[in-house]
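Section 3.1: Structural characterization of target chains.
Under the original work plan, the team committed to producing a structural model for every single-chain target entering the pipeline before any wet-lab resources were allocated. The record below documents one such target. The sequence was received from the expression subgroup and is listed exactly as submitted; it comprises 163 residues.
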Amino acid sequence: MKNIISILILLFVGTSIFGQTKKLPSVKLKTIDGKTVDISKIDNNGKPIVISFWATWCKPCKTELNTIAEEYADWQDETGVKLIAVSIDNSRSTGRVEPYVNGQAWDYDVLLDPNGELKRAMNVNNVPHTFLIDGNGNIVWDHNNYAAGDEHELFEQIKKYAH
């Protein structure tokens, strides 16, 4: 009996320590038109948010975001999801972001992380790296890299958290 109680206590303590929900860090980024945004304050009225880290020099990143762009209006109609594309282009290449985005006609919010502050805070080692945030601001899913079809898995995850 003591062993069972000990195990239950360990499970409870382990769950409370390791089962903590992860929130977005408080990092300030700029939009491509120069407005400052605190990523921890981003809200979508209780609907899911996708944060996709990308760069202009990253072919899989651009393929992923362009593929999602084809379905994005339908995703929004069905789930209310919002996608935020966070460019990790550094100060030398950040000037390429706005022309690229304008050429793609993405309907995403695009933020610039030229110093890698958000990238480091969210432990992003390589791009593309995509996070799903639920309506309560919790990071509930993430995926690294991109292969054709990954957008379907992302949409399935989005639907789980769309109320």
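The chain is about 40% helix and 25% strand.
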